[in-house]
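lol ok so funny story. i was supposed to be doing the assay writeup but got distracted and ended up predicting the structure for this chain instead. priorities right. anyway since i did it might as well share w the group, maybe its usefull for someone
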Amino acid sequence: MLLVDTGVLYALADRDDAWHVRSVQLLRHSRERLLAPVTVLPEVAYLIQSRLGSPAEQRFIRSVADRELAVETPSEADWTRCVELVAKYPDIGLVDASVIAIAERLRVSTIATTDRRHFGAVRPRHRAAFDLVP
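and the output, tada:
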């Protein structure tokens, strides 16, 4: 599984996004299924709807319904870890904290994200740093 953050999912939908080509190439060259924390879905849907319109948002929702994207719900321990992460790294916010907490629980080393600043600053529990792609 390739754990994905909001930015990559949005970039896949927006052909004008600076990360679009890199995100598409990442998916074309990866055999891993995409895994998104449920917390990123409202953020992605909002960005797509507000910037690209309702038809684009509907396509995104359809991709989730068609299981093109696996969805992971934070566990109770993940929520507790989110509290710790936001306290330690106040700039990351809940969505990023949930991605990190799930990555730690699943022992994921790579996160597909366009957010180098936030994810690059965090030191996960299970490794020195995350590998950030694309």
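The chain has one domain: 2-133. The chain has a mean pLDDT of 97.
back to the writeup now i swear
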